[in-house]
Amino acid sequence: MPNRFSSLPNRRTIIDRRAIADRLEALPHGDTAAMRHASTQMLKEALDAGRSEIMRRFAEHPTRGLEAAAGQAFLTDQLLRLLWDFTVQRLYPNNNPTAAERMTLIAVGGYGRGEMAPHSDIDLGFLSPWKRTGWCEQVIESMLYSLWDMGLKVGHSSRSLDEMIRMAKSDVTVRTALLEGRYVWGDTDLYDEASRRFRLEVQSDTRGFIAEKLAERDQRHRKMGDSRYVVEPNVKEGKGGLRDLHTLFWIAKDAYGVQRAAELVEKGLLTRQEYRRFHRAENFLWAVRCHLHQIAGRAEDRLTFDMQREIAARMAYADRPGKLAVERFMQFYFLQAKTVGDLTGVFLAHLDETFAARGRRFGLPFIRRSPRKLNGFVLDRGRLALPRDDFFREDPVRLIELFSLADIHGVEIHPLAMRAAGRDAKLVDDYRRDKRANALFLDLLTSPRDPETVLRWMNEAGVFGRFMPDFGRVVAQMQFDMYHHYTVDEHTIRAVGLLSQIERGLLVEDHPVATALFPQIVSRRALYVAVLLHDIAKGRGGDHSVLGAEVAERLCPRLGLTPAETETVAWLVRWHLLMSATAFKRDLSDFKTILDFASAVQSPQRLMMLMMLTVVDIRAVGPGTWNGWKRQLITDLYDSAEEVLRLGHKQRGRDERVAAKQAGLSQALGWDSPAFERLVKKLPESYWVAEPADVLERNAKLIERSGDEKLSIDAQPDAERGATLVTIYAADHPGIFYRIAGAIHAAGGNIIDARIHTTREGMALDNFLVQDPLGRPFDDPGQIERLKSAIGDALLNRARITERLKAKPLPRVRAEAFQIEPAVLIDNHASNRFTVVEVNARDRPALLFHLANALFQSKVTIHSAHVATYGERAVDTFYVTDLIGDKIDATGRMRTLERRLLEAASDSTMANAA
User: Fold this and answer.
1) Domain 208-355 has CATH 3.40.50.12160
2) Residue ranges of the alpha helices (H) in 476-577?
3) 787: part of which helix (H) or strand (E)?
4) 126 — phi, psi (to 5°)?
5) Burial status of residue 322 (CB atoms within 10 A of its CB: 0-12, 13-18, 19 or more)
6) What's the whole-model pTM score?
7) 869 - beta bridge partners?
8) How far apart are CA 868 and CA 479, in angstroms?
9) How far apart are the C-alpha atoms of 831 and 835, rounded to whole Å?
10) CATH code for the domain defined by 11-199
11) Which pLDDT tens digit goes with each residue over 441-487?
């Protein structure tokens, strides 16, 4: 048998099998249980010593993942051989075995491949020629007990040859595991017979096996997010991870009979350069997986934020200007995941040619046929291909034209053409300013069809980053935060795709305003380019919006945009965060907020384009980031700003809007005039501006129901906003806000927004949007009752909030992996009536309660609160006055307020509730 561990250096320092065998041989005879216990102890010591040696080597060379994985498998082999010999020679000797008492031990699965992470399961197969005899069962049972006593996790099967063949034929998982089966110890003739029968009887249906493995892979990808650029990837199962490499190898082994990855070159499946990329990616992914297991102390394959930081340090990544060590590490990770995807495409091309049936292909679904020739390119079974290998070298602009034609004609690109594009991508360096190339690229970016898919192909081939080096700098660049789900390049391409879908009317239900406004955009080219460039300067240090605007000013003329378009793009990139920051962190019922925003935007065209850029930027962050509540805030800000830009800086429109809302509410309620007039007199103008029509109606009905009661609470799930609307109508008093916030937190709620009003009769009318810890509305009747009960108890002093929060331990949150220094900004210019206090801090349960309590302790009145969460970062904004309604402008008082809020925002604080 070939020794797959021959390249492993100094194997005897990991485990010296002969020396341990001599020690086992020297164990005195006794009863079977005592002998098994003594041998197990000896082997456990050898296991611990071997693991320590492997990890010592790995610590010295933390990037040698394959060596560490091979070391674990080698150590396991030697222990199993020692255990086998001791079991069959000392514990259950059988000097005259019958033909039925032959047995062989095989390694299957990853262990069979000779690769194991520190806490991987050991997958074993015990094979016998026919039905197992009593002696076989004794040996198997004894060995398993010893392995379990050594603390190992063992997956095992015990089958006859016929059972093995039958199971492999009927179950693709069993077939895959046995495909990697490897002799460990025992009867060699029996193993050879098993291998022969497996080849002849099981491996005959190669096409079916390939189809099943690719379907299995696609299902796994969907389960894991269907992108290799998710920011907390699964190293083993995720797209672009080890399992994808394993799938290639399984198929190659079944279809082409390869035994080592290096043989993929000999079979013509990969070039030598591609094999080097295969080996580098596999080695890196194994290093990451081994580090994960070692740090976690268990089998762990998800590369979470806390793990990323530690592994980056272990693998000696260092900070660079504008880019953290962990971001550099993850960028390299995603580049390796991209390599896995590239190699998969090349490999599938070979399978298509060799095994796919006529008219069907492995990989992407068949797309309609087009003319046989397209500008010199050819179509190979519906895919755009090259007529000859030097086609790109003859005219490098064809590197852009390849993707342009794929978009125009709706065809796929042949994987071998993608391979050639990747190989020749550097040729486009000298053609970046070529007018034809830039016109083709701009047409592709602004395509009325599906620019997202083709831009992603262009990025996968490496052509995008070469043609536009500024984009190349963000390829595979991770943003080390919990807010962004994807790398910068993937986020950008998704944003372009979303803009295209809005333009084509495919998202009209989610974005009716943007869809209706799109035809009014004067320069759609400028909008598409702005979406492409909005995050182009991330990772450079400094404000990426400012730096990105500079990139836009340089790049837009190259793409063929006019000076006016260039100015628009640069402005949009510079201010692409302005609308979301205003909508989510400021009080939109404060007219100065609208005036300041409109003054910055200046034109209706810019406003429309900024709104669309904001929408696609938020949606492209990741699933669940966009919701009805954000849509409402963005729409309210758009409507208000558009009104100001249309009417001028007057409040005429505001008065009309208040009157319209009151008229609409009167009609909806159907009350008699005196009753409705009494309601109108109770509520200040700011209330009518702040609240949408459906909330006005709910509030009015609650006020009517409450009568003379001093406390009324209502809670109704709101699917449109993705939250539960909780309304409290109660006698106003100092500290009411922090008590409500604490009660909601104690009941397991998370406040995403709060609008606080005081009626002219001194009653508090507060509306909170509340979600459960998973970001969903409270919709269970029991949950809602507990929520209302907790608020009632807090406001009637039946329970001390601090004690309730202490009694209910707050859950650990993923945000703990991030270090965020709290910051407090006190602004007396953002509002004419209020002091605006903005607190940035790491998000954690009950944060809003602690901040609100600090404001109460500072004798400050809260008029509105706005809660924005960006992954691990929370930004809570309060519009406040002192107790007599004036702004807080005394320097000493502002410093005291800042100090109290910083203490409340720090992770260690537990503010004392009054």
Assistant:
1) no
2) 488-503, 512-517, 524-533, 544-559, 563-574
3) helix 781-795
4) -100, 115
5) middle
6) 0.80
7) 874
8) 19
9) 7
10) 3.30.460.10
11) 999 999 999 999 999 999 989 999 999 999 999 988 876 655 567 88
